[in-house]
Amino acid sequence: MTQVHPAPAPPTPRREHTQVSRKSWSKRFFGRPEVGSLMGAVAIFVMFYAIADPFRTPGAQSTVLYASSTIGIVTVGVCLLMIGGEFDLSAGVGVTTSALAASMFAFQLSLNVWVGVVFALLVSLGIGLFNGFVLTRTKLPSFLVTLATFLMLQGLNLAMTKLVTGNVATNSISDMDGFDSAKAIFASSVQIGSVSVKITVFWWLLFVAVATWVLLRTKVGNWIFAVGGKADSARAVGVPVNRTKIGLFMTVGFTAWFAGMHKLFAFNTVQSGEGVGQELIFIAAAVVGGCLLTGGYGSAIGAAIGAFIFGMTGQGIVFANWNPDWYMFFVGITLLVATLLNLWVRNRAARR
Amino acid sequence: MKTRNRLLGPLALVMAGLLALAGCSSSGGKQAEEDAAGAGAGTADTPRLKVAMITHAVPGDTFWDILRKGAQAAAAKDNIELVYSANPDAGKQANLVQNAIDQNVDGIAVTLAKPDALTDVVRKAQDAGIPVVGFNSGLNEWKEAGLLGYFGQDETVAGEAFGRRLNEEGAKHVLCVIQEQGHVALEARCAGVKKAFQGKAEILYVNGADMPSVQSTIQAKLQQDAGIDYIATLGAPFALAAVQSASDAGSAAKIATFDTNKDLVQAIKDGDVQFAVDQQPYLQGYLAVDAIWLYQHNGNYMGGREEPVLTGPAFITKDNIDQIAEFAANGTR
């Protein structure tokens, strides 16, 4: 169990439909977007494994995977969107919005919590639809559109919660109908041998697998790469650029919804001020995982590795018992090293 | 518009279906809580005053919400129009004080979280003849700044009381969880705990904006050091996350916290959290506003202009929880 490596699958060295010429196996392997970050992840893993005794226990790995999964689930959506050439600053507070919506809708109307869960899904998809619609209609940069959404949601989260509940945190819904079944889906643990693993880890791996399949094996996947690479050329050959982009924003909405539901059912109540700053973690995880900020390049597996690097670093520093005053500094430097290693591997691959 | 229409149809259908099928919850929810009622009282017949309350609150924090409710209660009683504003950035908070001076208010209640950034503008208010009181933060600076009075808790004293309590409980190794690195009051609390606690005390920083990461970081620390037998958190939501961390890590560590909220009161009742130190934010907000009324109408100084009025530390344990639970349900404790 100690050797468990969370990279969901070995990077597939084959990608027929975009591969133009026959290249050597090693060149194709090192040309994959996720390889650089995989090296970074392995390096960080080995480092913590060597210096932190508690890091070697299966229980610790389970904690690391849990921390990674709560970042990684949203990162899947954010990564797809970035491959599609846009990014979303509203994803972090969007998670909180979703959790608030579910909790308040169910509580205030005294409904089964599952009704709140579905309501929150509609809200989250609606936010994605709004982002995508405004973006494709106005042709404004996504930075601006989603920054506006980010700020609006931040205000809405607080104002709506205060308006509806009279407080700034939602009421506990743990005694309401449907809570137990919803908790089982979104926030339970699975016992594997002696270790209990949070269910978000499995959902995360599933989402990564689905996203990878969509990207590499479907028409929609081709559209996403095309839209992010050169939108005008893509449109010229008949790719529905606007619909693809709107769909990608709604995918981010979906992942934010899922993370929000986890938050709600893991902690029963939600504070309306949470989530600010998380959007950068998601974007950073995707970038560390090899998604280009400029679009057209990246992989869901890479994004998963990026999230794993973030989760592992955050927890590893605690396991290693480093001076906590330096915590954020250590997180920053580990990420820098991981990204540089990523860059180095990619450059080597290009020169080969 | 094509896209929108195509999506709106199914959306409306799903919504309609939802409402039709909506199963009502037989337990909990708003209906179960409908009986909550606020505390009402008469209103003073003194002329209407305008008072500005300016804090360094982060938006959406339960603690500040309770404090604001106390201020509103006092304002309602004293026939005062309360203008509440807040900004965690010291420079912007100073701007808000200037804003209040421009409005020519009858009194200002301000938190001196970063005193250096605020003393100039406070002096300006005093020069303009506006009485200023301090609350919550600025225990060491309020007198020098010439404020009428101060209402709050000495964070170091509170931390020390917390530490002594841990000694009584027989704790050996305590973990002090700070949710915002570099926050002066929070660091002072943990420093106070460290000072009075006889066992080993350690600090852990967590990202307070993200609960799952708070939970997993505490969990990681408990796995790293199995000797930890007490966790001290500095805010109610973090105590509740720590309860989960301990159970997920299979640790027997007990939890105690600074500050309270509704769910925390329940957790103390259930025995998940051992005790809480309450600095009584409602009282801080209430007294700060009331002090201005007393000064304007009777020339009184609370604390005699010499001593701060301490609102904490008040301990909440299983012994007195029932009484407090009632008020906490209204969001005022």
Automatic annotation (TrEMBL), chain A:
Q: What's the protein's topology in the membrane? A: Multi-pass membrane protein
| Pfam hit, one | BPD_transp_2
Record's InterPro entries? ABC_transp_permease
Keywords for the protein's UniProt record, in alphabetical order? Cell inner membrane, Cell membrane, Membrane, Sugar transport, Transmembrane, Transmembrane helix, Transport
Q: Which GO terms describe its cellular component?
A: plasma membrane
Transmembrane regions listed in the UniProt entry: 35-52, 64-82, 113-135, 142-160, 201-225, 246-264, 276-293, 300-320, 326-345
Which Gene Ontology molecular function entries are recorded, alphabetically? Answer: transmembrane transporter activity
Q: What is its main location?
A: membrane
Q: Where in this protein does the record put region Disordered?
A: 1-24
CDD domains found in the cross-reference section:
TM_PBP1_transp_AraH_like (cd06579)
Q: Where in the cell is it found?
A: Cell membrane
**Is the keyword Ion transport in the record?**
no
Q: What does this protein do?
A: Part of the binding-protein-dependent transport system for D-xylose. Probably responsible for the translocation of the substrate across the membrane.
What name does the UniProt record give this protein?
A: Xylose transport system permease protein XylH
UniProtKB/TrEMBL annotation, chain B:
| UniProt protein name | Simple sugar transport system substrate-binding protein
Instruction: List, alphabetically, the PROSITE patterns matched.
Output: PROKAR_LIPOPROTEIN (PS51257)
Per the record, the domain of life is Bacteria
* Pfam families noted in UniProt: Peripla_BP_4
Which InterPro entries does the entry mention? Bact_Solute-Bind_Prot2, Peripla_BP_I, SBP_2_dom
Q: Alphabetically list the UniProt keywords.
A: Signal, Sugar transport, Transport
Instruction: Identify the stretch annotated as signal peptide in this record.
Output: 1-22
Q: Which SUPFAM superfamilies match?
A: Periplasmic binding protein-like I
Quote the cellular component terms of the Gene Ontology held in the record: outer membrane-bounded periplasmic space
The molecular function terms of the Gene Ontology recorded here are: carbohydrate binding
Compartments in which it is found:
Cell envelope
Q: Which residues form the Periplasmic binding protein domain?
A: 58-294
Q: Which family does it belong to?
A: Belongs to the bacterial solute-binding protein 2 family.
